[in-house]
Amino acid sequence: MADKVKTQREVNGLFELTESAREKLLGNKYYNDDLAPTKLSERTWGTYHIASLWVGMSICLPTYMMASGGMAAGLSWWQSLLNVLLGNLIVLIPMQLNSHAGTKYGIPYPVFARLSFGIKGSHLAAIARSIIAAGWFGIQTWIGGSSINGVLSILSSSWANWAGGIWVSFFAFWAVSVWVAYKGSEAIKFMESWGAPILGILSLALMIWAYAQVKAVGKGVIDILNMPATYAPGNFWKVFLPVLTANIGFWATMALNIPDFSRFAKTQRNQFMGQLLGLPASMTAFSFVGVFVTGATNVAFGEMLWDPVAVVGKIDSPIAGLLGALGIAIATMTTNIAANVVAPANGISNLNPQKISYRHGVIITGIAGIVIMPWKLLSSAEAYLFDWLGTYSIFLGPLAGLYIADYYIYRRKVIDLDDLFRGEQSRYWYGGGFNSKAIYTWIISGILPLLGKIIPSLSWFADNGWMVGFIIALIVYPLLMKNETASLVTPEEEEKITEKVLAN
């Protein structure tokens, strides 16, 4: 490992690469401007921006479907709502913990993964996250396209009768989403800041409309919420736990790549308070909108409509229906771009930073979102909740536990930024660029949940797959890394490479 002098600067607990270190990394095959640590001057997101990000991402159609989908699975309305709240409180813990490195060092998720998996091994974790994000991108784009198709169907009866309308709408929505994501973080910040209050107003309007439909048939709020559980006697936990795993899995992706956004926060307090205020409250509140409107459709129309696009189709007023459909489009786009494009775009760029930029990654993600065939994933509540969310969360729980164990227990939050972008000379190179102990941890932590998918007697481990994998990884990784010291930064080394600056 080559001797280095003052490659990183620290100002009030936040780090950045020195200008000389950046210049020396130019042309390095593991470095480009998109993956580089954000400069302190680029960290412009305050508490409001972080909270708005979560409000904008939480008020979306999949959130609505989580609550109503839980009811479709057999839970009562309050059980489904409690499930959503509990799932988000659980996933907020690793999310907050993994955010710290992004804010402190300004690094995106693929670079963060280099700490534990190695400079080359990070591709495994980044691409696993990217594949899931691409699936989500496809799901959200299909929903957004459906809402656009609903708008055009309201405006034109001939469009409503045209079978190809949904496909034209889907690809139009796809194109706009890819274009905004292509513009970068400041465009996303602007969109989320303005989208959050608009979505709040539209959510309230939807509830008012739903209540009006119920009142028109001589019923009230009590009737809306009079929705008992429909699961078989004694099967509460068999339904509740898989739905809880799905709720955790909902944001389990962001619990990994949250550094992609926390790297733009001004301070640790900004990112912490923004997420605390933005995530649990928004998810629970909009989930209640889903519960309320789903119950109202059951009372007013005699069927529980868990798909909000179908609900908008029940609105008689062309203007109100138009606003509802446009609301769905806005809600979908604010979530889709931030949650489902940034991570895979960065992950794909990490494969070959010198040849693949973030913008190239955006295009590739968009194409993958089509290939995933999202219309099949949304074919039913069971396919959405259990087949999709429940399965992929099994692979993400171990990663969340592994990252936390690496950063807090093993590494004690001390990083050599410059080494994250070097090759064989880097302390994070491990063996050939891969940390086999991280890979072993990931595999070991996923065994029980995966067995639970195929062996009925072990189904409990699958039903709680995210939590089981998370806990096992949190324990196994420090044990495997106990005698590994080459990648650690000693206090003496930290003093040597860090220039400490007093802020004005």
Structure at a glance:
With 504 residues, the chain is mainly α. Helices cover 70% and strands 2% of the residues. The protein has 23 helices and 3 strands.
Could you describe the 3D structure shown?
The chain is an all-alpha fold. Helix content is 70%, strand content 2%. The chain contains 23 helices and three strands. The chain has a three-stranded mixed β-sheet with strand order 2-1-3. β1 (8-11) and β2 form a beta hairpin.
Give the SSE map.
Elements: E1 8-11, E2 14-17, H1 19-25, H2 47-58, H3 61-72, H4 77-105, H5 109-117, H6 122-155, H7 157-160, H8 165-183, H9 185-216, H10 221-224, H11 236-257, H12 259-262, H13 268-301, H14 308-312, H15 318-340, H16 342-351, H17 358-371, H18 374-377, H19 381-410, H20 436-454, H21 459-463, H22 465-480, H23 491-497, E3 498-501
Parallel strand pairs: 1-3
Antiparallel strand pairs: 1-2
Helix pairs in contact: 2-9, 2-13, 2-15, 3-4, 3-13, 3-19, 4-11, 4-13, 4-19, 5-6, 6-8, 6-15, 6-16, 6-17, 6-19, 8-15, 8-17, 9-13, 9-15, 11-19, 16-17, 19-20, 19-22, 20-22
